[in-house]
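Section 3.1: Structural characterization of target chains.
Under the original work plan, the team committed to producing a structural model for every single-chain target entering the pipeline before any wet-lab resources were allocated. The record below documents one such target. The sequence was received from the expression subgroup and is listed exactly as submitted; it comprises 155 residues.
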Amino acid sequence: MIIETGMAQLAQWLLWPVSLGVLGAFAAALWALGRTLAEAWQRWRDPAWRALPAGDSVPLEALELAALRQLEPLRLLARIAPLLGLIATMIPLGPALAGVASGDGGRTLLGFGNAFSGVVLALAAAALALALHSLRRRWLLEELHAVRRARGLVE
């Protein structure tokens, strides 16, 4: 009994940090959207514009690493946000279900509302991050292919 009580209390303590993580993930996804839109505008205005370092002296491996570094935050966001959303959903469900058992409808509705709002924001952040990751990955792969073609490594 003491272990279960301790675990429940620890889970409740995690609610605030996890909720802040969900909000941070959503904000990061919106920031990435703005950054990607700005890059799309730049690419539209100047088709020769590149996100990767330019020059023949830059080794191909360094360009590939630069591309991975640009993509990694979006990939992590797309994978971590749903996990945070799941945690943010599960923590309030315990007290909400206790409210159902005790007949306290107000506490129950509040608990379910909090649980589902966390997962909705987290999934929206993950979906946006995944879409942006795919788009930016395609752009960077096209740049790498252009560099390989210019260096005579591919036809």
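Residues 73 and 122 are 15 Å apart (CA to CA).
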